[in-house]
Amino acid sequence: MRRSALILLLAATALAAPLHAQSATPRAMVSLYRAAPGQQVALLKWLARQDEISRAAGQPAGQLYVHQDGASWDYMLIQPATTPEQDKAVEAAARKMGVDPGPKMGIEFRRYIAEHSDTMSAGPTTAADWLKQVGE
After folding, report:
1. Residue 16: per-residue pLDDT
2. Model pTM?
3. Residue 98 half-sphere exposure, CB side, CA atoms within 13 Å?
C-alpha cells in the first residue's frame, strides 16, 4: 500500500503536525492489510514495487510483517512519516518509473485487498520515554 493512500497520508500528516512539533518521538504510518482472496502474491508484488519507488526517491522501504497466527490481517507495513517534499520526490520517482501516482494507483491497489487501515503513530519508543512525553 506504500503510496495507495497518498492523499490520506498527506491529510494525516497535516493533521498530526502539531503533535509532532511537541514531541521528539518519530512518527510512523502503520498499515494493516487483509488481501483479497487469491491476491496475496499480487499484493506483495504491488508492495514491492512501492518499495522500489520509495528507494528511487531516497526513502527507505517499509518494514513488512507477515501474519502467522491470531488476528485477521495478512500483512503489516510500518514506514516513517514523510514530509510534503518527500512525498513529491516519491511521486516524481513513480512517474519516472512509469507509475501514475494519482487516483488510478488507489484503484489498482484496491484490487488486491479486502480491507486495510492506516494509522499514524508515534514510535518506536518505550513506555518510560512516552511517560516523560506526557509529563508523568
Report:
1. 42
2. 0.78
3. 1
